[in-house]
Specification:
By secondary structure, the chain is an all-alpha fold. The protein is built from 19 helices and two strands.
């Protein structure tokens, strides 16, 4: 959070992001010259993620900034673009991408998807304490601190975020009482390390066939699902009329409206219900049930799955998943703008812990994928369902094929459910590692 960027009006910033996305798609469509060679190495989705971060880095735009008014008071400002993209466009995209899903085919993906998801969880649980032990050999002060300032207490919030999500992260802050004045630094580490890892996964998507070959992976179930959806899409394909477009918009945003409305009742209800649990540990385990975002994503997905059993699924022929993909790309751009590459060096010690931690998580995923011959899709989505949650797991899944976005959401919901329990276990081990 620093000086004002060049553009602070969300209308202008949104236009800049859309121009960037238009440039990416235009250059990606070129068949001759430099661009085909470039996109053969770097996936377009990765560029859509990194270009906004470069805009932030050079000061064109910013997710947050400060100004000083005439009275000398410091005022904090922030963009609303990520909020709008994650709360409105993401659930709408999930609806449009899920209404044509074949739920039976999703379940036919088999046990390897769950194995890779839980491997990702275990990687986070053991990665934290191992990272502390390794860093303590080089720089003990980086993992030191006492009382509320103890670094392991702050890292507990990362464990909550990287296994579950924001609600789990907040629960860990409450459970272990980390100094809230220092909490902003941990949030920054969370954003930087998680975004770097997501960037790595996106690059890997462009090389997934080569990775699958190295893993000796059997991705026949994934290909079968993609083929089934593509066949159905071709069968009902038609030029969309204005009526089609308006009905698809109504279905998508009507579902979003419904989900927001009932999430507004369910979240406070469960927050009160969970608050009445006597055991503090049990109470914090179920904190995620008080998150409106959790209920909004869950309800949108459930409704979309129910719609997939109706004639609404035929709107895939009018391009439902393509319009959903537009929303996903806007979300990717809004996530990218949250990252200022220059600030990586401001918290170098903590970021180094996070990178070591994430490397252990990644290494375990690769090892298990190699052992069980799981395709890269399961590795990438299993990881993001933990680290990124419901906001980014569908992005990674949909990058393989729009029909696979639902897989990312379903696994991310599992992450919310086990996030606090896994983070508590991880924190116990980190405390032991820090005091050893």
């Amino acid at each position: 959070m620093g000086n004002s960027p060049l553009f602070t009006d969300d209308t202008i910033v949104f236009g800049l992001l859309m121009l960037a996305l238009g440039f990416i798609f235009y250059t990606e469509s070129r068949t001759t010259g430099f661009w085909p060679k470039f996109y053969k190495i770097v996936p377009g989705l990765f560029v859509a993620y990194m270009l906004p971060s470069l805009f932030t880095t050079v000061g064109l735009i910013a997710p947050e900034w400060k100004t000083v008014n005439d009275a000398g008071e410091t005022i904090k400002h922030s963009t609303n673009l990520y909020y709008v993209a994650s709360r409105y466009l993401l659930p709408a995209a999930l609806v449009l991408m899920t209404i044509s899903i074949d739920l039976k085919a999703v379940f036919n993906l088999g046990w390897k998807a769950l194995i890779m998801f839980f491997t990702g969880t275990i990687g986070i649980i053991i990665g934290g304490p191992i990272a502390i032990l390794l860093i303590s050999m080089i720089s003990p002060e980086t993992v030191g601190g006492v009382g509320p300032d103890a670094v392991w207490r702050g890292l507990s919030t990362l464990a909550g975020s990287w296994i579950g999500g924001g609600a789990n992260q907040t629960a860990m802050l409450e459970i272990y009482g980390y100094n809230q004045k220092l909490y902003g630094g941990m949030v920054f580490v969370d954003i930087v390390v998680a975004n770097i890892w997501m960037a790595v996964l996106l690059i890997g998507i462009g090389k997934s066939n080569r990775i699958d070959k190295w893993l000796n992976a059997d991705n026949s179930a994934i290909e079968a699902l993609k083929e089934k959806v593509s066949t159905f899409s071709n069968k009902v394909k038609r030029n969309p009329t204005l009526t089609d477009l308006m009905i698809m918009t109504a279905i998508a945003f009507g579902t979003v409206s419904f989900s927001h409305y009932f999430a507004g009742f369910l979240a406070p209800f469960f927050e009160r219900l969970v608050g009445e649990i006597e055991s503090a540990t049990a109470r914090n385990i179920f904190t995620f049930l008080g998150s409106e975002f959790f209920w909004m994503i869950s309800l949108s997905t459930i409704i979309a799955i129910l719609l997939s059993f109706t004639k609404a699924k035929n709107y895939e022929g009018a391009g439902a998943s393509k319009y959903g993909s537009v929303f996903i790309y806007i979300l990717v751009a809004s996530i990218g703008m949250k990252m200022d590459l220059t600030q990586i060096f401001d918290n170098a010690g903590l970021i180094f812990i996070g990178i070591v931690w994430m490397t252990i998580h990644a290494g375990l995923l690769v090892l298990v994928a190699k052992l069980i011959k799981a395709p890269y899709f399961f590795l990438a989505v299993g990881s993001q369902a933990n680290v990124g949650g419901a906001a980014s797991a569908p992005i990674v899944a949909a990058a393989f094929h729009p029909s696979l976005a639902t897989v990312g959401v379903l696994l991310a919901v599992c992450g919310y459910a086990i996030g606090t329990v896994g983070a508590i276990l991880c924190t116990i081990l980190m405390e032991l590692a820090a005091v050893s």
